[in-house]
């Protein structure tokens, strides 16, 4: 008799965005004429930039000729991409990273989800609350949690609330933890930590032999000077932090799939008996066993993101989205809503009006304004009473969405 991984039975009903899609499809079936605007899942809408397309076309042609054809890619990425990443994202910021410390992958979702496999089953995980659901769900699947309680919190998980009261700055854990997920700029709240705040975390991690899993997928949206672009800008971080980056939001690769993870060779974790091991080696072993590398065409596309033309073009796209973010922020504020984020991140996090429940507000927006957002409570108990809108829609849809909230929603 085949048995199942019963940890899966501990998961909440369905993955947040699957649940939203289900509700929207049901509404659409009942109201086929409704012109729905989707500002729910953070999926980009602007096309890939010309520099990327040009590079992909060239790479496609190379694949069609015997002399330039490429089979399996190197498990950790082609050297041309690794070098380019290091030069632009690290060396340019005074951070020393070597090629053996970068792993090119098919997405930060996969990497932030899979990374827990190299950690001990009994590690205590801390997550900020609200949180990108992948960090939590993958640890539930791995059996690092108990059951979910009536308050929406899983046993054995340490929740670090981030809300308006603490200005979205999580407090250090007061109990023992082993792994901490931080996402800066933050999904879902759109808020950030500055260098001094991040330093507190790095110091804490060093003192307590804790690993920081630092998701920096929204780094390209940082506009303010005091927000670090990499955790390795903070002294000591190369001993305790793994950094995840992605081309998805940076360059419109949500459907193209390319990302990378950095594990400095100095990041150590321990056996039960206290013997130190570099996590870089464990991850390398995992990747080469379970992954055959990102396709050549896609890696050439990612490389083109860093060309002078590519950089200018993606910056224009980011500006486009951040114009939308400003529009949403200011539009909602003008009708008296309390709004966070949207300055260094493409997410706007708002307080639901009149203390309304997050899902209730979701239904209200969907039925009255035909607008889809994401209920804050779907990201964790501290997201209750909040709601997320993304700035990844088209400018026209964003204008229309704000107008619909202003005119169709009775606050
Ligand atoms: C989100 O909406 O939170 C993101 O699109 C999720 C993701 O990047 O996987």
Q: Mean pLDDT, rounded to whole units?
A: 97
| Strand order of the biggest β-sheet | 2-8-7-6-5-3-4
Radius of gyration: 21 Å
CATH architecture of the largest domain: 3-Layer(aba) Sandwich
Number of helices: 12
CATH superfamily of the largest domain: Type I PLP-dependent aspartate aminotransferase-like (Major domain)
User: Unreliable stretches, pLDDT < 50, 5 or more residues?
Assistant: none
In the CATH scheme, what's the topology name of the largest domain? Aspartate Aminotransferase, domain 2
Bound molecules: D-malate
Q: What is the total number of structural domains?
A: 2
Shape label = globular
Main sheet makeup? 7 strands, mixed
Q: What oligomeric state is this?
A: single chain
Helices and strands, in order, run as HEHHEHEHEEHEEHEEEHHHEEHEEEH
Describe the structure in your own words.
36% of the residues lie in helices and 14% in strands. It has 411 residues and is an alpha/beta fold. The protein has two domains: 6-47 and 309-408, Aspartate Aminotransferase, domain 1, CATH 3.90.1150; 53-307, Aspartate Aminotransferase, domain 2 (3-Layer(aba) Sandwich). The protein starts with 15 loop residues before the first helix and ends with a helix.
Descriptive key words:
411 residues, alpha/beta, Aspartate Aminotransferase, domain 1, Aspartate Aminotransferase, domain 2, 2 domains, 7-stranded mixed beta sheet, 14% strand, binds D-malate
